[in-house]
Amino acid sequence: MNNILVIHGPNLNLLGTREPEIYGSMTMQDINEDLQKQAKEADVNIDFFQSNHEGEIIDKLHDARGRYDYIILNAGAYTHYSIAIRDALAAIEIPTIEVHISNIHQREEFRHHSVIAPVVVGQICGFGLDSYKAALYVAIRKLQEEG
Q1: Does the annotation mark 100 as catalytic?
Q2: Can you give the pTM of this predicted structure?
């Protein structure tokens, strides 16, 4: 059975109350529950991790080697400046999809650039919960294609 890891970065634990005009009213738990249902229907194992700390996210990425077939990562603000997370992604060589709830390209200028984009298989942003669901759909499809 295939294993997928979803990593939620800084401040995503505050979803539902954090800037609802940008991030909506869904909570991180809502996202996890929806993804859990989607994974179960596809007969895929899915685990979730959230941290506000860069080093913990890096440790989790390192620990993912040999355990996970795909990663879905919302690195939050680390997307825009964490060379350390970028390097960890490159080192572990696990296909990773970068997700964002909001469209980072329609927001403040500093959010337009992702330092992790060059080392992930793709980026999905701007669709709220559906950004995560689309990423999971793609990961499942790719794993099925690989057989």
Answers
A1: yes
A2: 0.92
CATH code of residue 54: 3.40.50.9100
Query: pLDDT tens digits for 30-69?
Result: 999 999 999 999 999 999 999 999 999 999 999 999 999 9
Residue 116, both tokens: 């992790």
Q: Which domain holds residue 27?
A: 3-146
The answer to whether 23 is a known catalytic residue is yes
Number of domains in the chain: 1
Catalytic residue among 23, 68, 78, 132: 23
DSSP string across 50-93: E-S-HHHHHHHHHHHTTT-SEEEEE-GGGGGT-HHHHHHHHHH-
Query: Alpha-carbon distance 60 to 121, whole Å?
Result: 19
Query: Per the annotation, does 74 bind a ligand?
Result: yes
